[in-house]
Amino acid sequence: MDVKSLRQLLAIRANGSFAKAARALGMSQPALSSAVSRLEDTFGVKLVDRTPNGSELTQIGALFAERASLIIAATEQMIRDSELLAGGETGIVRLGIGSAMRVDFMPRFVSALAQRYDRLGLHVQVSDRDKLLPMLMNRELDLIVCAPDAELAHSGLVVTEVLTTRVVAVAHPDHPLASERGISRERFAEFPSGGTSAQKYTNVTILGEAAGNLEKYVANDYDALWPVVLMGRATLLVPAFVAQPYIASGQVVEVDLQWAFEVSFAAITTRATHASPLISKLIACARDVGATLSGPR
Fold first, then answer.
1. Which of 118, 177, 212, 296 has the most CB atoms lying inside 10 A of its own CB?
2. Claim to verify: residue 35 and residue 104 sit in the same structural domain
3. Same domain membership, residue 73 and residue 17
4. What is the DSSP string of 151-180?
5. Mean pLDDT in each 10-residue stretch from start to end of the chain (297 residues)?
6. CA triplet 70, 76, 79: central angle to 5 degrees?
């Protein structure tokens, strides 16, 4: 049974008739009927029943179709892996970028890739880590760049750090904390603050038992949090490179904290994809871009 035959069987299941399946496959109905008959003869079983309303798979046909989906997916993954391992700099690379890196890192990274590999096509997906990781595991993405999680060490994925930066607290210039110096965790926690759900900057391991007030505003994208900060209603814990444009424009100021911590972002791939020379080059490019954003520690 070849992949073409499997796709034909899946088309009949999806469309409910030989005529509709043939149109979807771009072939004639007699040719599809002959192909299914040959498949049935090969295995000695009835795969499709014709009904007054169309066609439907028999019980064994449904079992074949279920296995067919897995075989086709595995075949496509093998083809994809072989293309990447060939080491060329053409074709399409599917990138996932974490939401926190959308504003500053992503434009620089995509621009650098376009300049270095002008024959390479890029398909970019921007989302939070919890959505990107399943897409990577399902081979819908070749490479993602986002904040890693401690659990990734046991996932079988390959994690390469590309950027480590300070996490800063920022506030509107009129916020009460904007003019204070040497702010303690306890003082900072007296005011509502926000951060991203994926990176959990405001969890109790960092900010103590008062963290509940600091998680009043939580989102998976900083764009959702900036309005309340610019209104003076909350502070924001954010990677320094994300805050820099707002600080430079005077819209916010960095709050002077007694304590400090950092956040890392990483390039994450499957082991098979990581063996690709092209993917290795893309990770190196991500690290080059990351070095421009790390800033003083």
1. 177
2. no
3. yes
4. GGGGTT-EEEEEEEEEEEEEE-TTSGGGG-
5. 77 89 90 88 88 86 81 65 58 87 90 88 88 88 88 82 91 96 88 71 49 70 91 91 92 92 89 85 94 72
6. 140
